[in-house]
Every structure is written in C-alpha cells, then in structure tokens.
Amino acid sequence: MSLYRYQISRDNVEYINEKVHDLKHQAAALKQLVIQNNCSPEIREKYADLEKVIQVYNNTVLTGNGVLNALLTEEEHLCRKNNVQFDFSINGETLDFIDPVDLYILFGNALDNAIESVIKIADPSKRVISIHVSRKGKLIHIEFLNPYTGHLIVRNGMPCTSKQGKNYHGFGIKSILHIAKKYGGNAAFSAEDGQFRLAILLPAK
C-alpha cells in the first residue's frame, strides 16, 4: 500500500464514475428506441443485461470520507468478482483527521488480508467481510471481521506465520500497528472459532 496506489484507486473510481454517467444517458436513449420499435424479447433481454451491468458499476460506496469511498468502491468490485459478501457500517467523517495516505494504507492492508483469506473458503456463502467504524465517547472503534480456513494462531496479539495464516503476517500487519500508534491508538488481532478479528481503537479528534 502506498501513495501511488491510493492515487491510482482514486483515479480509477473517478474514471468509472465518469464512464457510467455517460453510459446511463446512452442507455436511456437506447431504451426509448427499444420501446418505440417494439423490439424482440431477445433484444429486450440484452438491454436488461446492460442495465444490470451499469447498476453494478453505479454503486459507489459513500462513507462520508473521500479516501474510504475510493478504496471501498474498488474493493467492493473485487469482492463481487470473487463472490465475497462485503458488509460495512462506517462513519467516515470521524476519520477525517487521519492523513489520506495513512488511512488508505490502514484500511487497504486490512482489506487485502481479509480478501486473501476468505477467497480460500470453498463455500461462497461463508465468504463475508464486515467493517464497522463508529465513535463512542472519546474513542473511535474500527473493526474488521472475516472467517478463515485452516489453523491460525495469534500470539501476544500478533498473528503467527503459517501456511494457512501467512496472509496476516508481514509488512501489512506492521503498517497497521504503526499507523494506529502514530495516532495515539492501538490495534489488536484475535482468531477464535474460525473468525478473525482486527480491532483498532483511536482517540477521537
């Protein structure tokens, strides 16, 4: 995760939004032609498929924070492609005090780890990633939850390297810890009953 990747993600989302905006107008004009010319059921079905595609890419994530909007919109498309359910409840405005690159790295690393883990689960119905961000008093609570397969050990608050759990180890984890501490908070990892949890506490600004 880096400033370069953040800029790429932001530009990608802006580009997609621009193209989808144009496609919506073109699709509206095409719909009128389909109706006026009483087109065959096959053509109507193809038009319906086009509308579904536009709708998929028209779902821009809105959290109240521009950085998270760009990142989560891109990640949501990746989740959909891999049959991963992506649930979130995020008050993004509470994170405005965090430097954009730090915020992108923090959430990007956590999501990369979660996605790499859940796509290994054979049953698509169990591939679920949940993110919650809320303010409670003077603290901001950030939580990432996802199931995992195999054996994952958390020792002294850190996921240990193993063939099954190696995605949780390395520079991504260190970056998460570093950024949490940079803003006066902390991060804790836990794995129990097949559920991995990353909890971050930050003092509210």
Shape: elongated
Q: Uncertain spans, ≥5 residues at pLDDT below 50?
A: none
Query: What is the strand arrangement across the widest sheet?
Result: 1-2-3-7-6
CATH fold name of the largest domain, please? Answer: Heat Shock Protein 90
- Note the total helix count: 5
Q: What is the total number of structural domains?
A: 2
At the fourth level of CATH, the homologous superfamily of the largest domain is: Histidine kinase-like ATPase, C-terminal domain
Helix content: 40-55%
Q: Quick one: how many beta strands?
A: 7
Summing up helix and strand content along with how strands pair, one would put the structural category as alpha+beta
Radius of gyration, taken over Cα atoms and rounded to an integer in Å: 20 Å
Order of H and E elements: HHHEHEEEEHEE
Specify the CATH architecture of the largest domain. 2-Layer Sandwich
Biggest β-sheet description? 5 strands, mixed
Task: Quote the distance from N terminus to C terminus.
Answer: 25 Å
Query: What is the C-level CATH assignment of the largest domain?
Result: Alpha Beta
Task: Please tell me the overall pLDDT.
Answer: 80
Estimate the strand proportion: 15-25%
